[in-house]
Amino acid sequence: MYDYVVIGAGIVGSFIARELSKYNLKALVLEKENDVANVQTLANSAILHSGHNPEPNSLKTKLCLLGNKLYEEVEDELCIPLLRTGAYVVAHNNDEEQKLLDLVETTKANHVTEYELLDYAEACKTEPNLAKSITKVLSLPTTKVTYPWEAAFACMENAIVNGVEFKKNSEVTNITKSKEGFVVTVNKLDNYHTKYVINATGVNTDDIAAMVEKHVSFKIKPRHGEYYVLDKRVKGFVNHVLYPLPTDLGKGVLLTPQIHGNILVGPDSKWVDDKYRTNNTPAGLEYVKTNAKHLAENVPFHQIIRSFAGIRATSDQDDFIIEESKEAKGFYHLAGIDSPGLTAAPAIAKYLVEDIMHVQDKYSINKEFNPIRFKNKEFGSLDYEQQLEFIKKDPLHGNIICKCENITEREVLDAINGPLGSNTIKGVKKRCRAGAGLCQGGYCEEKVYKLIVRETKATPLDVCYDGAKSNMFVSETKVK
Amino acid sequence: MNKEIIVIGGGASGLAAAIAAKEEGRDILLIEKESKLGGILNQCIHNGFGLEVFKEEYTGPEYANKYVQKFHESKIDFLLDTTVLHIDKIENGFEIILSSKVTGMKKVTCQSIIMSTGCYERTRGSISIPGDRPYGVITAGSAQRYLNIDGYMIGKKVFILGSGDIGLIMARRMYLEGAEVLGVAELMPYSNGLTRNIVQCLNDYNIPLYLSHTVTEIHGNDDNRLESIVIQEVNQSYQPIPGTEREFSVDTLLLSIGLVPDITLMDNLDVEHDLKTKSVKVNQAYETSVPGLFICGNSLQVHDLVDNVSMESERAGKCASEFVLAKKIESNESIKIKAGNNLLFVTPHYVDFAWASRETVIQFRSTSKIEKALLTVSQGDKELLSKRKSFIVPAEMETFTLDMNQIEKGSDILVNLEVL
Questions:
Q1: Which of B336, B229, B356, B203 shows the shortest CA–CA distance to B274?
Q2: How confident is the model at residue B405 (pLDDT cuts 50, 70, 90)?
């Protein structure tokens, strides 16, 4: 019997898991994918917004501001990387400048205390490639960039260390009410009994809610967004997150510097019917390209190494929905968590646990809770002397597996064997970036799969790219 | 450690360059990141290699072995499983940081570097093919490695995008291994592979080639595996023509959409880039704008025949040796070699009179297929060469030699290709 079952191990589910592990209770996290952070958390801009944009007095605003601050706390505790970029919201003409002033009002109303209006020349001092058509800029110094799936790994690893159970490849197929709470059925096979259920399933929140409610009070309206990834060799082309003025459809196409030097270009925003289809479209990519040109001059599109798409779990309501089910007591929804969901995630977890579920009134504090999750510094980020030290301690750091990103054998082995290790090509790439560079795995995929084979005592035929049926190979050759 | 010359990369190019420089008596270290010398040749188990150099036809591994043997006989120092992480220009040479499991990380210095780092394959991401993003879309070279070296098939129903040579070779290879190969789509109105590969790899096995076609849709199934692709004919500006869609049910899409010279190690060096070759500019000695830094093989320009790689790298090796012997060769006056009409690119980019004793071997690719052409090379009003050529295609690199005695200081050299 569990106290809490959390459904969904995205960034929100992961922060909730860690928050729950601060109490003496029994919690289980169920994830339908073969990894933590595999859907919305894997396909977004990676920005920790300052809170300049959402409606004043909304949950989005409150939790965005608090979340932004909380990341500063977990940065060292959990080794979650932060890049303090700041952001520029740009205006191109009188009309847009007026809207920028309106945005300043929202910014003030949202209690974002740090902001500044700059004219084009001033902004260019720190951002020399700004589009020449820009006339005014709203500077938001508290905007940051993180590494979203690393943040989710960090929380989930820490939650596991502190007693939370985690099961991947576990799709919830049915939920029934029971005397003590709920019975959650996974893969139409296994039943888990629990007092409370937390529904943190992104685009699936309405479907999961429908398992316990006759009249689900919200509906997910999937919103598709596409991106280009520029190679890390563009590092420095822009140094701030560059936003256009927000519209009803969101924050628009952005240029976003990433932790490892890449720049993301995107996203567009399209309502779609299929909440699972993360395809790229010629129209979407073209839109992204066209709009990026309003932010910077000569965007280095020749350095594109990848395109991808994601689905936002936007709901039919404006604000985040963080509440107890009206029909099923003890069942909690986290729905409509689109932007600024990543920013708000740590605050959402606290708000849910303390203000909505009142866990502190039901369970005692876990005195053994260890807030620290340690991760080695990335080998490639060290200077020569530090790298020598690393290699002295562990010669496997001397063997470079991914030469585009300088990822060492030790880093790949940690990705495979770590507390939340993965035996898939994508899982390894998410954990240590082998294959994330210029050649997109052309050089190192072969080395990575062989390390997976060696470390997990599998055969090459067992190795998967991601999900359980995504085997790299279909057969051996006829002659061997 | 201090060496006269460090060769980076132990494939066809690095081996030939190292052997040539060693013949001149140089002290050389060759660094290879894989556990075996020979580079990509090791996975090219088909034949067709060596006709120019050895006047005999070999498979890739056989061709590589010819050079590997000679390399070992020459007693050249080398490191395997060793990655070069960084190159710095220092006074009188270079400092290289290398790393391996055995030696750890080390700094070594040298007077001259020969870059023979080869090329990497363009991926789906680099050309932004729209559609779902399932598994089963893979570069032809990776599939070739998995099949020929590791012994694993990546799929059974295959379509190939791009008619580059690796794609064509893999069409035949997958067919012979029992896969169904449904076709090859090529964006251009002509093939990007060698004619002999079109004949021997596609025609002989009735594999259709769809010229002026590209992949416009990719569909994955519920398990996110490739299920089908759609190809469409394109118009003259390479835009898909509505109504020409054709769907193929496949589990594998091989990409043979081009190779890019791997020059990332030169990122922090003051080299001059060539946007056409996607590499750097060199003079007739294969020296970049950084004195003592030489480059050859597929890291200079993507070749279609390994024989040309070997011969080019041999020349580069000799030049690097000459550079070391002379202590330093100051750039004398240099003139440009410019690509004129109908030329995609031309190498080398400069004739430097400091290297006046070196013949100038010029290589180029045309921008389109030309049945009959007149190749002219001129310097100002003076015509240096005029030659009729028939059947020039972008897929086949053309080579000719200029006699340095003909070339004067002053005006640039123009290489032109007129359609007759």
A1: B336
A2: confident
For an interface test with B, the pick among A307, A381, A394, A426 (most B C-beta atoms closer than 10 Å) comes out as: A307
**Sheet containing A47-48: order of strands:** A47-48, A144-146, A82-83
Question: Above 80 in pLDDT, residue B210?
Answer: yes
Mean pLDDT to the nearest integer, A21-32: 98
- Tell whether A300 lies on the interface with B, counting CB pairs under 8 A: no
Q: Which of residues 409-438 of A touch B (CB under 8 A)?
A: 409, 438
Cα A266 from Cα B403, distance rounded (Å)? 53
Q: What is the pLDDT of residues A350-395, one digit of tens each?
A: 999 999 999 999 999 999 999 999 999 999 999 999 999 999 999 9
Whether A193 is catalytic? no
Of A233, A304, A403, the CB nearest to B33: A403
What domains are there in chain A, each with its CATH number?
2-41+148-219+317-362 (3.50.50.60), 87-141+221-312 (3.30.9.10), 379-462 (1.10.10.1100)
Set out the domains of chain B in order of their start, with CATH numbers.
1-121+259-329 (3.50.50.60), 123-257 (3.50.50.60), 332-420 (2.60.40)
pTM (2 decimals)? 0.96
Tell me the ipTM for this assembly: 0.95
For the stretch A218-257, pLDDT in tens is 999 999 999 999 999 999 999 999 999 998 778 899 999 9
Residues of A numbered 189-228 whose beta carbons fall under 8 angstroms of chain B's beta carbons: which are they? 228
How far apart CA A53 and CA B57 sit, in angstroms, is: 68
Residue with token string 């800029």: A137
- Beta strands A241-243 and A223-230, pairing class: unpaired
Starting from the edge strand earliest in sequence, which strands make up the sheet with B398-402, in order?
A: B343-347, B360-366, B398-402
Beta-carbon separation of B225 and A460 below 8 A: no
Q: Which of B132, B75, B53, B61 is nearest to B313 (CA)?
A: B53
